[in-house]
Specification:
Largest interface: A-B, 28 and 27 residues
Structural class of chain A: mainly beta
Shape of chain A: globular
Radius of gyration of chain B: 13 Å
Number of strands of chain A: 11
Largest sheet of chain B: 6 strands, mixed
Oligomer: heterodimer
Distance between the termini of chain B: 36 Å
Low-confidence stretches of chain A: none
Mean pLDDT of chain B: 93
Number of helices of chain B: 0
Number of strands of chain B: 11
Structural class of chain B: mainly beta
Chain lengths: ~120, ~110
């Protein structure tokens, strides 16, 4: 399977704990995105990497959130001191640098539940 | 604030019927994607439209991009239960992020 993969698929944690999610993009894609989706809403943009550089961050990304892409391949999203409002589906997407479209391909997501 | 408004939010139809859902915005997009999402899964790409007025077909699904590149429609002919899902439209505005609507939840009853 050469699509976007995410791990874990599900995470249940207690309020105040830290969690980390991983995303492996499509191998030849240099652009990687994180989105968050809550029930009844469409995905909302969190942050964007081109290679290893984090080029854009949404105001949704509070200081408890940090994302990295150290070698320009996989990425991690860490949430510190989780709150119940962080419960959501966290989606990763990737996009190549060639072609004329802005098409992003999504992974299966990580469902986070904060108790 | 959702930049893209999708309507209707929920639609239930009988197998074999046709349906059309809409995605509207006041913003111009360089391209627009349609995705289908199943519960607990990520969005799966159906189509990307780029040119104003463009029409693309994917089996029984027909996608149209508005002339002004602000809106789009998805028409399904002879819907089948396998078409059930949340249809999301997403506009790309050139700032590297996609802006999504809330989706059109379609239920096809056998």
């Amino acid at each position: 399977d050469t699509g976007v993969s995410q791990d874990p698929r599900h995470k249940i944690t207690k309020r105040g704990q830290n969690v980390t999610f991983r995303c492996d993009p499509i191998s030849e894609h240099n652009r990687l995105y994180w989105y968050r989706q809550t029930l009844g809403q469409g995905p909302e943009f969190l942050t964007y990497f081109q290679n290893e550089a984090q080029l854009e961050k949404s105001r949704l990304l509070s200081d408890r959130f940090s994302a990295e892409r150290p070698k320009g391949s996989f990425s991690t999203l860490e949430i510190q001191r989780t709150e119940q409002g962080d419960s959501a589906m966290y989606l990763c997407a990737s996009r190549g640098s060639s072609g004329v479209t802005d098409t992003q391909y999504f992974g299966p997501g990580t469902r986070l539940t904060v108790l | 604030t959702q930049l893209l408004e999708q309507s209707p939010q929920f639609l239930s139809i009988q197998e074999g019927e046709n349906l059309t859902v809409y995605c509207n915005s006041s913003s111009v997009f360089s391209s627009l994607q349609w995705y289908r999402q199943e519960p607990g899964e990520g969005p799966v790409l159906l189509v990307t439209v780029v040119t104003g007025g463009e029409v693309k077909k994917l089996k029984r699904l027909t996608f149209q991009f508005g002339d002004a590149r602000k809106d789009s429609s998805l028409h399904i002919t002879a819907a089948q239960p396998g078409d059930t899902g949340l249809y999301l439209c997403a506009g790309a505005g050139g700032n590297n992020r996609l802006a999504f609507g809330k989706g059109n939840q379609v239920v096809v009853i056998p």
